[in-house]
Every structure is written in structure tokens, then in C-alpha cells.
Amino acid sequence: MDAIHLDDVSSWPSHFDSLFDRVGAVFPRSDLRHQARGYVRGLLASLDRKNSWQLAEHLGHDKPFGLQRLLSRASWDADALRDELLRYACDHLGANEDRADAVLIVDETGVLKKGTKSVGVQRQYSGTAGEHSASPGRIENCQIGVFLALSTRKGHALIDRALYLPESWCDDRTRCDEAGVPEDVTFKTKPQLAMEMIGRALDAGVKPDFVLADEVYGNDGKFRRFLESRGQAFVVAVASNQRLWVGFEQKRVDQIAADAPQESWSRFSVADGSKGPRVYDWSAATFGAPTEHGQQRWLLIRRHIETGELAYYLCCAKPESTPKDLARAAARRWGIEVAFECAKQQTGLDEYEVRSWDGWYRHITLSLLAAALLTAVRIAATEAKPHRSGRRSKSRRR
What we know:
Blueprint: H1 12-23, H2 30-44, H3 52-58, H4 65-71, H5 78-93, E1 103-112, E2 122-126, E3 138-152, E4 155-164, H6 167-170, H7 173-178, H8 190-203, E5 210-213, H9 215-218, H10 221-229, E6 234-238, E7 243-246, E8 249-252, H11 253-259, E9 265-273, E10 276-287, E11 296-303, E12 310-317, H12 323-330, H13 334-346, H14 357-397
Parallel strand pairs: 1-5, 5-6
Antiparallel strand pairs: 1-3, 2-3, 3-4, 6-12, 7-8, 9-10, 10-11, 11-12
Helix pairs in contact: 2-3, 2-14, 5-14, 8-10, 13-14
């Protein structure tokens, strides 16, 4: 997804006003609405960093206190804004249109932090630490957020978020009180947070063709059973040591792959990448009985045609689904990476300086709202091009 420069899109102010017409009721006072509008405009600006001081300077404020109050002490509900964000994203991405090719994707991202005061911070593994190095992913002092993205044929948007609060934090009520963590917050694993977000999206009427996730979530049997209980098709990555029942014995998926007959493999492209078609070898087989919703369980195996490296996916889908359907769904997990890149590079997702629970949720939600606006503007600009071209062609024929 190429970066979009709002100054080059003449219609973006009307998109901005339309967005705040929708979400304005979340902010009960006019001064809060004004601050929220300013904050989102600042997040959309071309600034070196998008912390409160630089945003305030960009907006012409002498001090950042108004913006800081918006993120900390002001009275408004970040979850109500999240709900409006979901509806806005669904409308612009056409999530409920016929042949929308909608998928929900869950993943996490880390933000490096110094010290011990920022809510949820501790030394923990982050797959995005050192993401520009040869070996991304390492243990760092950081916060981890779990996110849900909606992806359709029109584009991608992050629609929900949850801060992962480690057990060490949940067991220390004094520390939680200092960071403003609500008393009813208890420890939840990343898959549990993901289930809550997916449940909210499904309850709101989103009807994705598939839910997609990496091994952190795919390895969790409760996560898979939750999706099955909702009748929701999924394609989730699992580790090589994941076990399945084959006949009357359990076998690791890498053992099943080693035993797969040669005729079970097919080579095809699942998508176009930056370097051309993304071609892999694929093998798929059904296993187990149908689910209570009549869906079929699958094991899908991907093999890199040059290195021979294998990847494994557990899938659940309609009986008429084909291995190619599952493989193409698996390849769409990259959509959340595109959404992360947009939010980090263009709307300051990871450039906050808040420490509290409310501060994290408020900044993150406003950043996701700004990123969804960019997606809406991009979609509108793209859809307008053929229309304008058609008018010019018609004029020339005259």
C-alpha cells in the first residue's frame, strides 16, 4: 500500500468532516470534539514524530496540555470510538457487499519502551523488534498490542485493539493502580484477547469468508474451537509439532507432510507479489469429522519451491471449499502487515508518549481512526479514476 499524500487529494477535507460527523457524539463536549479533530489532523500531518508536543506545535498551540488531557483525564469512551471505527471501516471497505472477499486477520505488534512505568511494559518477545534487521524478533523492553484487521478486495484497515497485560502486571495491583488499569482487568492470553475482538466483529454483523492468524493463535486449541463454535471458517498457521489424529494415532504435522504422496502436491500462484506471482507447492487433506456447523477440517501444507521450507495451516471451511481456496486465504494474512505499516508510518501508531491504560487505548484508537480515513480516501480516489477517465473518453468521441 503506497503512502498517500492528503495534499494531493482534493476531497480529503470532506472525508475528514464526514468522519467526525459520525464520531462526534463520542466526545460529549464541544471542546473535546475540537481537541479530537485537532489530534487526528495532527496524526495525518507530515511530522518527524507525532507525540503531543509536536502535534500541539503543528496545530499552533503554545502547550500540549489540551491534547494530553484528551488522552488522559477527559471524559470520553475509547471503546465507543472503536465501535464507530468498525462501522466506518466496514462501510468504506464494502465488507458486507457481495463478493467482498472479506477476511479478518489477527496479529500483534510491539512498541519499544524505556523504564518500567508504561502500562504493560516488560522484557518480552516482540516479533517487530529489529524488524529492519536480518533477524527480526527478539526479547526487548516493550509493550505488546494485539490487533484485528479487516481486509477486502478494496483495502485493509485495523478495526480493533487490545493491550496485552503480562501476568507480572496483573499480579501487582499497586503497579496497575499507578497506571490506571481498571480493577476488573485480569490476565488474558493473546488468543483470548483475539477471541474477544473477533467476537465483537462477528456480533456487529461482519461476515468474513475466513479468519486468519499466525502460530501464536493457531497453536491454541481453544482459539480454533471458538471459531468452530461460531461457524466461522479459518486458516491459521501452526507449528511443526502440532499433532492431529490420523486413524487411531496422533501424528505431528511435519510427519504427515513427510508422508504426503507426491501426487498430493500442486504448484500454483496464490497472489501477485512485488516480484511477480507468489508461487508455492501446496498439499491439503481433510481430517476428522465435520464440525457442528457442517464445516470440514483441513491440514494445508505449503512448500517453498526453492528452499523446500514448509509451513503448516489448520483450516476449517465449507465442504465445497478447495485447497486452492484455502491457500489463497492463507496468502492474505499479509494484509495486516500492510495496515500496520500504514498506521506506523503515517498515523503515529507507535509514536505515543502516554503511560496509562486510558492513554494507550485512546491514542491507539485515534491512530486507527486516522488510518481508516486514509484508507477511505485512497478507495475513493481509486474508484474515481475510471469514472473521470470515462468522461474524458466520451468527450473525445464527441
